[in-house]
Specification:
Layout (H helix, E strand, L loop, with lengths): L3 H16 L2 E2 L4 H11 L12 E6 L7 E4 L5 E4 L3 E4 L5 H12 L8 E7 L4 E6 L5 E4 L6 H7 L12 E6 L5 E6 L1 H5 L15 E4 L3 H14 L15
Parallel strand pairs: 1-10, 7-11
Antiparallel strand pairs: 2-3, 2-6, 4-5, 7-8, 9-10, 9-11
């Protein structure tokens, strides 16, 4: 029996599929266009759990190291509560300069993301250990699947689906042919992942047939299909 969390994950996945334009078997040119669109926002956005260094050039006594709380805020001297989740470091720098302007003569501030508390990706489908995994540095689709214990024999490696936050947080879904990566004919299919990416490995057509046979024939018709015929299911 699947856990409630896993069921919720599949429900979200279904909603994303319904709302997302799916790019099937992208050509190299189309693949480059999709990748460019996915990477259009290059600067990292601060997330809950991130650890930030707030540096004041002319007022070092105000320097602080803070962690973004679950409500997306941090607490700082003089200005108290500041909402930071969803901002880039440069956007937060400008916001802090505005907030400290009434208090400091020359608020020169730097924001440094020391650690990333929310760098996660999700792997589900025909893998041996589906779930959420940390993403540290550069991680490709195959590396993420390896973290999930590898693909099952029933996996459809030619149609692995990636769902990612696109422009304006709209979900963008597209398919990758990892079979071409395995046989070294198209390594560009093994793209780098970004935080909150969902990697979904679908079940192969033959696996779906076997499931149907198991559910609707073997379990409902009291016949031993392993004997008495020239073939077996």
């Amino acid at each position: 029996m699947k856990s409630l969390t896993h069921i919720k994950f599949l429900y979200v996945l279904f909603i994303l599929f319904a709302c997302s334009p799916v790019v099937k078997n992208p050509t190299p040119l189309h693949h480059q266009a999709v990748q460019a669109s996915l990477n259009s926002e290059k600067e990292y956005r601060i997330q809950v759990g991130d650890q930030l260094d707030i540096k004041f050039f002319y007022n070092p006594e105000l320097n602080e190291q803070v962690t973004v709380r679950p409500d997306g805020r941090i607490s700082l001297q003089l200005v108290h509560e500041v909402m930071v989740a969803g901002l880039t470091p440069s956007e937060l720098t400008q916001r802090l300069k505005q907030k400290y302007a009434p208090e400091l003569k020359k608020p020169e501030i730097a924001v440094i993301v020391r650690s990333f508390g929310a760098y996660k990706i999700y792997v589900d489908g025909e893998v041996n250990k589906s779930g959420m995994f940390p993403i540290v540095g550069y991680m490709t689709v195959l590396q993420a699947i390896s973290q999930a214990g590898g693909m099952k024999d029933t996996a459809r490696t030619s149609e692995v689906v990636i769902i990612r936050r696109g422009e304006f947080n709209k979900p963008l879904a597209f398919q990758l042919n990892l079979r071409k990566v395995v046989d070294s004919t198209d390594m560009s299919q093994d793209i780098a992942l970004q935080p909150f990416d969902i990697v979904y490995v679908p079940k192969s057509a033959i696996a779906n047939v076997n499931t149907w046979v198991d559910q609707y024939i073997r379990k409902n018709i009291p016949i031993d299909f392993s004997t008495g015929f020239g073939y077996s299911f």
